Amino acid sequence: MVTGQYVDPRAGRITFQKYAERWQGSLIANEAGERITDNALRLHLVPALGARSLAAIRRNDIQVLFKHLSDQLGPGSVRNIHDVPVRLLTAAVDDKVIASSPCRRITLPVMPDEEVTPPTVAQVEAMARVMPPYIRAAVVVLAGSGLRIGELLGLKVSDIDFKAGSIRVERQRLQ
After folding, report:
1. Per the structure, how many domains does the chain have?
2. Residue 147's domain spans which residues?
3. Are 24 and 70 contained in the same domain?
4. What is the pLDDT of residue 160?
5. In this structure, are 68 and 129 located in the same domain?
6. 13 and 81: one domain?
7. pLDDT value at position 116?
8. Fewer CB within 10 A of the terminal residue: the chain, N end or C end?
9. Domain with 32 in it: what CATH number?
10. At what angle do helices 16-26 and 75-94 cross, to 10 degrees?
11. Residue 108 domain-assigned?
12. φ and ψ of 132, to 5 deg
């Protein structure tokens, strides 16, 4: 109490879900950031940790959760999800709800640094042939432009300059 580092044990009784709702409501982020945070909480973190009190969550609980996620998702997705409880539980420490964050020293999957080999024209043509007609153009655009799927899904006709052969990416859609 004298040093200002005392954390009332009763404060940590709040559930992960309740604190997450308050924390998420206070965030200032762009639309993509809000969606990433919402998806991570709704699909992964609240189902796994929601009913637990913040004070009861241990580092190993977080490690086991991310081991499980790394068995299902790619390394980049796991890292994006990991960022959310790190920020949330750091805020809980700053708010003096818990004394320390259980997200410290969590081992995450290694990001591969292998070089991407683009498909050949013949491979793209073969893929487009087996796709339903409404998807064929998307296959060709993705292969020829380097767009991500979310960027393609966010395109509008006005974003494409057919004469110049260019695409302007101003938005993306998160699945």
Report:
1. 2
2. 121-167
3. yes
4. 87
5. no
6. yes
7. 80
8. N
9. 1.10.150.130
10. 90
11. no
12. -60, 150
Residues 6+ apart with CB under 8 A from 5: 99
User: DSSP states of the chain as a string?
Assistant: --SS----GGGGGSBHHHHHHHHHHH----HHHHHHHHHIIIIIIHHHHTTSBGGG--HHHHHHHHHHHHHHS-HHHHHHHHHHHHHHHHHHHHTTSSSS-TTTT---PPPP-PPP-PPPHHHHHHHHHHS-HHHHHHHHHHHHH---HHHHHT--GGGEETTTTEE--------
Question: How many angstroms separate the CA atoms of 42 and 86, rounded?
Answer: 16
Closest CA to 23 of 38, 1, 11: 38
Residue with token string 């709702």: 21
Q: Please name which of 101, 102, 98 lies closest in space to residue 9, comparing C-alpha atoms.
A: 98
The CA distance from 40 to 69, in Å, is 11
pLDDT of residue 37: 96
Over the stretch 64-103, which tens digit does the pLDDT of each residue have? Answer: 999 999 999 999 999 999 999 999 999 999 999 999 999 9
pLDDT beyond 60 at 141: yes
Residue 1: pLDDT above 80?
no
**Percentage of the chain modeled with pLDDT above 90:** 67
The token pair at 165 is 């052969």
Average pLDDT, the chain: 91
